[in-house]
Design goal:
single chain, 122 residues, mainly alpha, 5 helices, 3 strands, 44% helix
């Protein structure tokens, strides 16, 4: 059983709640920094970043593992990297028959964008 934390991204009304405040808003707490670091660490590997991008840019916002596994590494390595992205809360998955489909929730992309956004000009 994994002890990985899922990034809290949605409020009940569907509003995006980033895992952390925008970097320029205020200093992060230790817990916020841990959450953001997990996310960035997962994306810090070029293969994981390519897989994340392949899922995010795939038609319909989800991709079968069979459609995204051509990233220059073996299939077991692809599975390992997809598992790391799931543990970081960046992907969700659903098994359909023999295939697994991965999805990036739009709220994840929005939260990542908010974290790195500059403050609005006064």
């Amino acid at each position: 059983m994994s002890n990985a934390k899922v990034l809290p991204l949605l409020e009940p009304e569907g509003q995006v709640v980033p895992c952390c405040p925008p970097l320029a808003e205020r200093p992060m707490t230790a817990e916020e920094a841990e959450t953001a670091a997990r996310m960035f660490k997962a994306l810090g590997d070029p293969v994981r970043l390519r897989l994340f991008s392949a899922v995010a840019s795939h038609e319909g916002g989800e991709a079968c593992v069979c459609d995204i596994s051509d990233v220059g590494v073996s299939q077991p390595t692809v599975s390992h990297h997809l598992k790391k992205l799931k543990e970081a809360g960046l992907l969700t998955s659903e098994r359909r028959g023999t295939w697994v489909y991965y999805r990036v929730e739009p709220s994840v992309l929005a939260a990542m964008g908010k974290l790195l956004a500059l403050p609005a000009a006064a």
